[in-house]
Amino acid sequence: MTPRFQLPALMLILVAGTASAAQDASTRYASMAPIERYRIADRAEEIALAKSAAPADISADADVLVLGTHGYETAAKGTNGFVCIVERSWANRLDDPEFWNPSVRAPMCYNAAAARSVLPPYLQRTDAALAGRSRLEIRDRIKADLAGHTHPVPETAAMCYMLSNRGHLGDAPGHWLPHVMFFLPHVDAAAFGGNRPGSPVIVNQGDPEPETVIVIPVSRWSDGSPAPTDHTM
Question: Is the model's pLDDT at 232 over the cut of 70?
Answer without folding.
Answer: no
